């Protein structure tokens, strides 16, 4: 049973195939708002009406979403039609602007070489992600023939096992929960249902334009395959399901590999999205290593690196050139290496600039957006930075180490170069520039969470502060 509330999670008697499919897909999500991607075509209209017919029995909250790309001279008429259908069904309607942004290579390099179809799809899902709350659902009318086309399209692109799994009946895309109730049902069944019910649907002429890859596959390739093998779509859909099963096994293997290779005590004081032992990773076979890195990026909701970039990164790791610190950029995060560690580090948030030369501090909680960190002081007694020094002196946060020396607490009376202390503590190079140095009356007192000068330590019975760092970028573990 799920989070629903009203009615059983199993289909009620007397429903037709399409109604049962919708009920089974959303039965345990009934408390959520069910958003339906509604273009006005056969597939989405049948989905909208079949779902609406279940509303009295399931107590559903529905909403129709329509994306108006504005490409066709009929786009506004289609928009009005969809709005009218939703109104007749008493379903709230939300349409996008006719000038909804379509990404291109100039705006986003990730779309370099992408087809118009791919860019339109990205625009649709961007709109859906903007208007659908994380706890709610998006239903789409994709069917078995769509799945077969997707499989063939990805096969011709040389997709991976995961890609050949094609569409999932239920998946999360960038935080958006997407459900496809009709994915195992042929297009002909949806068309027959619409004819039987006398449903009025829109016809988009662009769906017959063979210049689009998917249309070419649908009308030329899949049609010929089906004329020879009647159940071609079912067979291709079954093949996609096999690849999904294989990918599930690969995910389990990658999860186990990363757990075994995880650094027990990653010396990261700021946020990260996982850390693994380099030597342990290099003990994996090349296919398992590639699989582990791909899984790692997916689990962090990041775009997968290109095959070429990932292979080159691994070659550099294996080469292990002295002094080299290979990196692999993923846009919003970067794989970085330090000593025996491989870390996935979020990139700075927009607006983070070079660290300031100095920031006054009174010992209270403080956010410093320029380096993306927050200082969180915690009161202690007999340990930490002595509070009386903060109250009586001039306290500054600085980010220029220079030749700073320190007498670390618990390491005897000798003074040490701060840079050597940081190296010995294993502070990664990319964090050293962000963690502030605390100076009191121009004398170095310490670095939060890293080192405290003996002369500034709170003695027995004295009030102290332990300063914790929080990364203002993506949260890490």
Can you describe this structure in just a few lines?
It is built from 16 helices and 21 strands. With 477 residues, it is of the alpha+beta class.
Write the layout of secondary structure elements.
Blueprint: H1 17-26, E1 33-37, H2 42-53, H3 55-58, E2 61-66, H4 75-88, E3 93-95, H5 116-131, E4 137-139, H6 144-156, H7 161-164, E5 170-173, E6 176-179, H8 187-197, H9 213-228, H10 232-261, E7 275-277, H11 278-281, H12 286-299, H13 307-319, E8 327-329, E9 333-338, E10 341-346, E11 358-360, E12 366-368, E13 373-381, E14 385-386, H14 387-392, E15 395-398, E16 405-406, E17 416-417, H15 418-425, H16 429-432, E18 437-440, E19 443-447, E20 451-452, E21 463-471
Helix pairs in contact: 1-2, 2-8, 6-9, 6-10, 10-12
Q: Describe it for me?
A:
By secondary structure, this protein is α+β, with helices and mostly antiparallel strands. The protein folds into 3 domains: 17-246, HUPs (Rossmann fold, 3-Layer(aba) Sandwich); 262-346, 2-Layer Sandwich (Uridine Diphospho-n-acetylenolpyruvylglucosamine Reductase, domain 3), CATH 3.30.465; 358-471, no CATH class. 38% of the residues lie in helices and 18% in strands. A hairpin with a 4-residue loop joins strand 12 (366-368) and strand 13. Helix 2 (42-53) packs across helix 8 (187-197). Mean pLDDT is 89; it is low at 4-8 and 103-113.
């Amino acid at each position: 049973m799920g989070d629903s509330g009203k009615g059983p999670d199993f289909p009620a008697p007397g429903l037709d195939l399409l109604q049962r499919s919708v009920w089974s897909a959303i039965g345990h999500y009934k408390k959520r708002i069910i958003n339906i991607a509604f273009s006005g075509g056969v597939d989405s209209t049948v989905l909208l009406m079949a779902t609406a017919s279940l509303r009295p029995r399931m107590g559903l909250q529905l909403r129709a979403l329509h994306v108006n790309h504005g490409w066709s001279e009929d786009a506004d008429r289609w928009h009005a039609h969809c709005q009218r259908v939703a109104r007749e069904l008493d379903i709230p309607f939300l349409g996008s602007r006719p000038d909804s942004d379509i990404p291109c290579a100039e705006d986003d390099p990730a779309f370099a070489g992408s087809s118009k179809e791919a860019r339109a799809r990205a625009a649709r899902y961007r709109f859906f992600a903007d208007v659908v709350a994380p706890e709610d659902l998006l239903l789409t009318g994709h069917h078995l023939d769509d799945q077969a086309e997707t499989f063939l399209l990805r096969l011709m692109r040389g997709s991976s096992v995961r890609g050949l799994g094609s569409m999932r009946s239920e998946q999360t895309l960038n935080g958006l929960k997407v459900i496809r109730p009709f994915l195992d049902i042929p297009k002909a069944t949806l068309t027959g249902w619409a004819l039987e019910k006398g449903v009025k649907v829109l016809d988009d002429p662009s769906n017959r334009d063979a210049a689009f890859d998917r249309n070419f596959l649908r009308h030329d390739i899949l049609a010929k395959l089906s004329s020879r093998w009647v159940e071609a779509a079912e067979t291709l859909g079954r093949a996609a399901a096999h690849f999904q099963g294989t990918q599930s096994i690969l995910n389990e293997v990658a999860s186990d590999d990363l757990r075994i290779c995880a650094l027990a005590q990653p010396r990261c004081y700021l946020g990260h999205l996982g850390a693994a032992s380099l030597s342990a990773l290099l003990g994996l076979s090349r296919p398992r290593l590639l699989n582990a890195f791909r899984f790692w990026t997916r689990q962090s909701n990041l775009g997968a690196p290109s095959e070429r970039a990932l292979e080159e990164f691994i070659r550099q790791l294996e080469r292990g050139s002295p002094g080299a610190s290979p990196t692999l950029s993923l846009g919003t995060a970067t794989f970085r290496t330090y000593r025996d560690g491989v870390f996935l580090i979020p990139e700075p948030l927009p607006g983070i600039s070079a660290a300031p030369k100095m920031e006054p501090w009174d010992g209270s909680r403080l956010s410093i957006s320029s380096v993306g960190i927050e200082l969180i002081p915690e009161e202690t007694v007999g340990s930490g930075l002595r509070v009386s020094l903060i109250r009586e002196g001039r306290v500054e946060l600085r980010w220029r180490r220079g030749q700073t020396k320190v007498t670390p607490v618990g390491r005897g009376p000798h003074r040490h170069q701060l840079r050597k202390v940081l190296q010995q503590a294993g502070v990664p190079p990319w964090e050293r520039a962000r963690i502030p140095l605390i100076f009191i009356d121009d004398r170095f007192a310490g670095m939060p969470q890293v080192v405290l000068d003996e002369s500034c330590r709170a003695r027995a019975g004295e009030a102290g502060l332990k300063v914790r760092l929080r990364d203002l970028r993506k949260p890490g573990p």
